[in-house]
Amino acid sequence: MDVLFLFPVKEHHEQRLKEEFPDVNFLFDRKPDDAAALETSEVIVTYGADLDEAHIEKAKGLKWLMVASAGLEQLPQDAIARRDLTVTNVRGIHKTPMAESILAHILSYKRGLKKIYEQQARAEWNKKIGGKEVRGSNALILGPGAIGGEAGRLLQAFGVKTYGCNRSGRKADYMDEMLSFDGLLEALPGMDFVVSVLPSTPETRGLLKKEHFGAMKDTAVFLNFGRGDLYEEQDLINALNEGRPAAAVLDVFDIEPLPEDHPFWGMDNVTVSPHASSLSGKYVDRSLDIFIPNMKLWLAGKPEEMENLINTERGY
């Protein structure tokens, strides 16, 4: 069996895989235009953005697509659905670095770290940095899954009350209260932090409208660590200029890299993060921690028991 990796892995990762699966032929660090490798591989491991519909059609032997990413919106989903392929992702591996990033930005904002850094650059001694406590705040987490739940756990440890919001309002870990998307507009005026870790799906694209931003407190902070198509960027720009919310921390954007002339770069109440919140140096290790058990189940003829199976029609 050929297993094709479309992104580079380190030597110790290759060795780990060969030791676990001595009878599998791994094709490491190939490109999707490697026609021979594409055609013979039963399993393809990819970040997702490098495959298009033509590649899927050429991959005659493909049965399982392992996506080393949580989001699937960059994949040719119609072509994948037509082939009835098994698709898995690495949902959950981002939870530690992303939750820590969310907490870091919240603490930085509340404790005035940006102002402290700016004062240091000017050799200025000034205690009036406007630092406030996080304890006693309310945080609304859009998408309280693995990442949102871990963010909720950390925030609760700091005395923050957590509200989870998903499509159905069903219970989620580390959320003090739950609501559905239908109750979102009503809940926003009571929130100090609004954090999105939502994926890009038909239900979430364009979910936030200008009325949602307008309903936020004039002291609230909006943080988007999910996907950039959650709202129209101009709506957020207008809302920030009007003072509701007070500030935004953005790790994802409609167009990436963010264009040099984009207004976000010049806005004092916006923190631009280069889609880096999930980085920690452990990405591939954690991806393999999901891939290896799934590969064992695949070889045993038990694909239905694999972790992180994706419904290709829903996209998650």
From TrEMBL:
Domain D-isomer specific 2-hydroxyacid dehydrogenase catalytic, first and last residues per copy: 4-302
Gene3D superfamilies: NAD(P)-binding Rossmann-like Domain
InterPro entries named among the record's database cross-references: D-isomer_2_OHA_DH_cat_dom, D-isomer_DH_NAD-bd, NAD(P)-bd_dom_sf
NAD among keywords: yes
SUPFAM superfamilies, per database record: Formate/glycerate dehydrogenase catalytic domain-like, NAD(P)-binding Rossmann-fold domains
Keywords from the named record: NAD, Oxidoreductase
The keyword Nucleotide-binding belongs to this UniProt entry's keyword annotation: no
Domain D-isomer specific 2-hydroxyacid dehydrogenase NAD-binding residue range list: 103-276
Family according to the record: Belongs to the D-isomer specific 2-hydroxyacid dehydrogenase family.
PANTHER family: 2-HACID_DH_C DOMAIN-CONTAINING PROTEIN (PTHR43333), D-ISOMER SPECIFIC 2-HYDROXYACID DEHYDROGENASE NAD-BINDING DOMAIN-CONTAINING PROTEIN (PTHR43333:SF1)
Protein name per Swiss-Prot or TrEMBL: Phosphoglycerate dehydrogenase-like enzyme
Organism of derivation: Bhargavaea ullalensis
